[in-house]
Write a structure and sequence with these properties.
The strands form three sheets. A five-stranded mixed sheet has the order 2-1-5-3-4, covered by helices on one side. The protein is elongated. The protein is of the alpha+beta class. The chain has helices spanning about 1-60, 65-80, 155-230, 240-265, 280-295, 315-330, 360-365, 390-400; strands at about 85, 95, 110-115, 135, 145-155, 275-280, 300-305, 310-315, 340-345, 350-355, 405-410, 410-420. α1 (about 1-60) runs antiparallel to α3 (about 155-230) and α5 runs parallel beside α6 (about 315-330). A hairpin with a 5-residue loop joins β1 (about 85) and β2 (about 95). It has two domains: about 1-155; about 275-420, Heat Shock Protein 90, CATH 3.30.565.10.
Length: about 425
């Protein structure tokens, strides 16, 4: 069962990871060019911002070529990694940090070209500088100004690859974590369902195994009686006597089969209880009329009565519950004891039935609702006990959704159930 749940988790996890990876790969293929273009534009923007201080200074009015050269030299000394040229209006180079002409510079460099007059307002906004080596002509007469050409390294593909690899790695880590959480969220209910199905299968196996045992023994006994009568062996020649015993055995087995069928019916998940408003005193009176004579035969006193309260329940199921609980109390209360019926009204009606003088081992209380479980193995065939009475009680109350319990108290054993009261 655990391995089955792990296999389901692994499959969902694997499929989710593969699906996310395909999405990431598709996104990379679709948007790689846009990403590369953005990266290039960002580099040029940064390059433009780097040269902004010197451009702003040398474009002030009244700058002579000599002053421009001095300013450019000071800027170059402070920023030795920058490479740029300043050409005057006659085309002469006023200052340069490069050793060759523009055309001979390697393609690994970006270039920004700004042609400007000596009027600051004629400068081109840096946000309009395009990518690559395309010069920018601004309004104004370029021959009255100068040309500034700045150079910067182009894309470092290795750095870009490392950044991309880091980004993809983070995406994959998030994808794997997300797939793990998703698979876990999906498989947890499935694992719980598998556990529940396994428990149901095991419960059914134990139930049918116990039922087979309960049926097999008396059937074998009845068969032995019939065979002995057919063979006229000894006392078995008295056919009327032993035929009556066979009939009693068959009757008890018919009753057991009907109990088993009722358990099966109550276990049907698709079946629904038919809840109606019913008077508890009428229903309880029917049950007491059935068991009061048996209680008097055993010297038991029944105190209290069912209250005159309307409750909402399935009449057949609730009557069976009360009947089985009362039968259990009559059979297990010591002779001379008392069976007390009490009811406490609140949001719900708590109906309790106490059989005084009785006691149940704590470790056995939870098992009393199991099919065919009996406390006293020496009394497995006592009276009409089938071993299914409390099992039917549990199935019926679970079907109706009513809270209940069987507990030890200072006086004896108490069974209680909470019933919904009908509001007028």
């Amino acid at each position: 069962m655990k391995k089955k749940g792990q296999r389901i988790f692994f499959k969902i996890f694997t499929y989710t990871v593969v699906f996310v990876l395909l999405i990431c790969l598709t996104a990379v293929l679709l948007f790689w060019r846009q990403f590369l273009s953005f990266y290039r534009r960002e580099q040029v923007r940064q390059l433009s911002e780097s040269f902004q201080p010197i451009i702003a200074t040398i474009t002030e009015k009244g700058r002579t070529p000599e002053e421009m050269a001095i300013i450019a030299s000071a800027f170059a000394d402070s920023n030795q990694s920058f490479r740029f040229q300043i050409k005057g209006k006659d085309g002469n180079v006023l200052f340069t940090t490069v050793d060759s002409t523009d055309e001979e510079l390697p393609d690994s460099y970006n270039r920004i070209t700004i042609r400007t007059t000596t009027v600051i307002s004629d400068q081109i906004p840096l946000s309009q500088i395009p990518i690559g080596k395309i010069p920018i002509d601004v309004s104004g007469d370029a021959k009255n100004g100068f040309v500034f050409v700045g150079y910067g390294p182009q894309i470092d593909y290795r750095a870009l690859a490392l950044r991309s690899l880091l980004g993809v790695s983070i995406m994959l880590a998030v994808a794997v974590l997300g797939a793990f959480i998703f698979a876990r969220k999906i498989t947890k209910p499935l694992e719980d369902e598998i556990v529940r199905e396994k428990a149901i299968e095991e419960s059914q196996r134990l139930f049918f195994s116990a039922a087979s045992h309960e049926l097999k023994t008396p059937i074998a006994a009845a068969r032995a009686l019939v065979e002995s009568m057919i063979a006229n062996v000894g006392d078995y020649r008295d056919h009327p006597k032993y035929l009556r015993e066979c009939l009693n055995t068959l009757d008890s087995q018919a009753y057991l089969v009907s109990e088993i069928l009722e358990i099966v019916k109550l276990s049907d998940a698709d079946a629904e209880s038919r809840e109606t408003s019913l008077d508890l005193v009428d229903l309880g009176g029917t049950v007491l009329a059935e068991y009061r004579p048996l209680a008097e035969q055993r010297g038991l006193l029944i105190q209290g009565d069912f209250p005159h309260v309307s409750v909402k329940a399935d009449r057949n199921l609730l009557q069976r519950v009360l009947s089985n609980v009362m039968a259990n109390a009559v059979q297990n209360t010591p002779e001379g004891g008392t069976i007390r019926i009490e009811a406490v009204e609140g949001i719900n009606l708590r109906l309790s039935l106490t059989n005084t003088g009785a006691r149940i081992p704590e470790e056995a209380i939870a098992r009393l609702f199991e099919p065919f479980y009996r406390l006293d193995t020496a009394r497995t065939r006592h009276g009409s006990q089938s071993g299914l009475g409390l099992a039917i009680v549990k199935k019926a109350l679970d079907r109706m959704g009513f809270p209940f319990a069987l507990e030890n108290s200072n006086e004896g054993v108490v069974f209680w159930v909470e019933l919904p009261v009908c509001l007028n």
